[in-house]
Amino acid sequence: MVLLKYASYMARIPQSGKKAVRVSEVITDHGASLGFLLQRANQLMRVEQLLAGFLDPEIAAHFQVAAIRENRLILISPSASWATQLRMQAPQLVKRLRQAGVPEIETIDIRVAPLAEQRVAQRKKRALSPAARQALEVMARIEADGEE
């Protein structure tokens, strides 16, 4: 809290004779280093979300976008087996990214390294089989009879 008060004070009263700049201006100015970093981070998050939507949820939980350098997308995977599965799908992923409006990516490199944040694989919801549904109904009736 003290830091925020100090920052707002420094923004209102410039000490060095330079013009005070609002934080919102720095963030939205893509020519400034902070604005450029935020723009780049948004681009990487967008690409990661697109890829996660293209992939099977099981595989999507085992990669992260690391960088985009020289028209090359660099992905990180925690193990060689997941990296191999991603490598096999890389050409199709490049095509789908281009269709989704990311034309600058020409190739995908996959590297094996620990992920910064482990994601939980989303499990697909499946309908109960008729036998399972019947068993649950029987158990519910038994439970209801036992409570009375």
Describe what this molecule looks like in 3D.
It is a single chain. Helix content is 55%, strand content 12%. The protein is built from 6 helices and 3 strands. It has helices at residues 2-12, 23-28, 33-54, 57-60, 80-99, 130-147, and strands spanning 64-69, 72-77, 107-112. A 3-stranded mixed β-sheet has the order 1-2-3. The radius of gyration is 25 Å and the shape is elongated. Mean pLDDT is 79; it is low at 1-6.
Low-confidence stretches: 1-6
The rounded distance between the terminal residues' Cα atoms is 58 Å
Number of strands: 3
- Number of separate helices: 6
The whole-number mean of residue pLDDT values reads: 79
Task: Report on the biggest sheet.
Answer: 3 strands, mixed
Name the CATH class of the domain at 21-119: Alpha Beta
Q: What would you call the shape?
A: elongated
**Helical amount:** 40-55%
Could you tell me the CATH topology label of the domain at 21-119.
GMP Synthetase, Chain A, domain 3
TL;DR of this structure?
This protein has 148 residues and is of the alpha+beta class. The protein has a domain at 21-119: 2-Layer Sandwich (GMP Synthetase, Chain A, domain 3).
Task: Give the topology.
Blueprint: H1 2-12, H2 23-28, H3 33-54, H4 57-60, E1 64-69, E2 72-77, H5 80-99, E3 107-112, H6 130-147
Main attributes?
GMP Synthetase, Chain A, domain 3; 6 helices; disordered N terminus; 148 residues; 3 strands; alpha+beta
